[in-house]
Amino acid sequence: MSFTPDILNRKLEALQETQDSIVTISQWVLFHHRHSKEMTELWADYVLKLPSSNSAKKLSLLYLCNDVVQQARHKRKMDFIVDFSKVLPNVLNVIYNSLDPVIKNKVNRLINVWSERQIFSAPDIKNMRLAMELSTGNKSYEGPSNEVKSSLQGPPKEVIVPELKLLNNTFQHMNKLADVNQSNMSQIGTQSKTYLPSDPLSSDNLPSPKIYISKLNVLEKLCLMTNSNLNEIKKDRAEILKLLDTIRLAMTEGISSDDNKINIINQRLEKLNSTRQDLSEMIDSSQSSKGQKTQNSSADVEEPSPVYDNDSEDDIPTYENDSADEDAPSPKKIKPSPEANTTSNNRKSVAFSEDIEVNEYDREEQTVSIKIVRSDDSDEYDYEPEDGEDVSMDFEKKHKDDLELKHEHENGGESVGDHQNSVQSSETSGNQLDNNVLSLLSKLA
């Protein structure tokens, strides 16, 4: 059946207060959802044309609106919700004040259901309640208030994480089906008592067989629709459990991963504390060593150094040596030049007596004694040897060289072997000197 305004008006005219009548017209309206804007405007015009005394009819039309918007939300046909939100505030502003008190309470209850189930947005609910308040004061509704307009421009949106968005949508769908099913179950219970008595023949409230069959057909449709809704609710519950299992598994893995991260961080903290403690100990030890060095340096500065009297020879320790070779070396004699030796020898006068004893240097505790006997016929005057001058000079030179060689060996601290070699060389030179002296004496004789 195609959509026309006349058909909709006839259906609205035939609307009854029963659930069956409301559901039947609601399904027809949803079927023609492409004309949602036109149908909502026709619905609003029809409600406003009703006489003020017909409160029950107005309530039935509001129930029809309720069934349409809830089914539309379930079937994701959001056009009906948007279009009804535009006409409902004005309709409520016109009819609310003329309704019976009982009907007013039911209308308020209907608005609360829309708010709790989030059929309409919060700004839309505010507009509806504002329109009813203005109707009570006999004031017309001229549109959303400034507060509502500001909320419409930037309404607070509920933020749902993507992981829970599907779960939230499924849960909302299940709740809506459960609410519809609860109303259907109550209708099924009421009609079952009326049209399905335990003994139909004994009941006097049953209609004629033709009407009775029609009522049973309506009850059958209601039962089938309720049964379908229950199956869909079961699917939603199973889907919710599946989503919860997925979330639980993800949360379990997340907890395990968090524990591993916590252990790693704790290890880093332990290493950090250990490193910091080592560095602190290193700094403390460095500062303590610097302080000790400073104290030592200050102590060295403050302590007076000892003063020694170099002029006093009594304070110098002396050592006694048993061997004459270990005595301190005598100062080295300056070797005279040949010219000086020649001059001194030329001026040298030798006096010979009967017994002249010539003492030579001690060499290892040995003394060489030479006795010179003058001839009786020689005169007592200064004798200047002619041929023996060179021998005497050689003797004196070799004598001095041997002494210097001995002192050099003693001062240099040479080994015993070197000292023995020097002694042997000195003895050899001494023997040669003795031979020269004897040769000189033989010439003099």
UniProtKB/TrEMBL annotation:
Disordered: annotated segments: 277-445
Pfam families according to UniProt: CID
Acidic residues bias (residue ranges): 310-328, 377-393
Top-level division of the source organism's lineage: Eukaryota
Comp. bias (Polar residues): 277-299, 339-348, 418-439
Gene Ontology MF term list: RNA polymerase II C-terminal domain binding
Gene Ontology BP annotations: mRNA 3'-end processing
Composition skew (Basic and acidic residues), residue ranges: 394-412
SUPFAM superfamilies found in the cross-reference section: ENTH/VHS domain
Entries under SMART domains matching the protein: RPR (SM00582)
Ranges where the CID domain occurs: 1-136
PANTHER family named among the record's database cross-references: CID DOMAIN-CONTAINING PROTEIN-RELATED (PTHR12460:SF0), CYCLIN-DEPENDENT KINASE INHIBITOR-RELATED PROTEIN (PTHR12460)
Protein name per the record: Piso0_000520 protein
Species for this entry: Pichia sorbitophila (strain ATCC MYA-4447 / BCRC 22081 / CBS 7064 / NBRC 10061 / NRRL Y-12695) (Hybrid yeast)
